[in-house]
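quick q for whoever's on today - can somebody do inverse folding on this one?? i tried earlier but teh output was garbage lol. tokens:
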């Protein structure tokens, strides 16, 4: 019986562990939310001794005209990821069930 639901149990344990770690980390202290690009730029500036503002990127970054477009692209990316996950899990579920003749 446990072997039948092994993937579901592993997923449940992973989700509960993530929630626990998230609550533990977010419960203490003040937090500053910044992206990995900002942290990487700061670390490079620290290692090279050059200020962050004086460094020019090798590839210029495209800046979106408004925040709404950025939010729309993020939502589109999330929808596409959900669609891919739905197709994969649907395929796996379809492989487990025997074919039915209508």
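ok took a stab at it. sequence:
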């Amino acid at each position: 019986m446990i072997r039948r639901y092994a993937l579901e149990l592993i997923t449940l344990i992973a989700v509960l562990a993530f929630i626990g770690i998230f609550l533990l980390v977010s419960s203490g202290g003040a937090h500053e939310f910044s992206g990995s690009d900002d942290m990487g730029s700061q670390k490079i500036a620290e290692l090279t001794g050059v200020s962050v503002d004086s460094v020019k990127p090798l590839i210029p970054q495209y800046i979106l005209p408004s925040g709404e477009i950025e939010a729309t692209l993020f939502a589109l990316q999330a929808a596409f990821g959900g669609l891919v996950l739905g197709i994969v899990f649907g395929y796996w579920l379809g492989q487990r069930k025997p074919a039915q003749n209508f």
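fwiw Residues 37 and 60 are 14 Å apart (CA to CA). also Helices lie at 6-26, 36-48, 67-96. so keep that in mind when u check it
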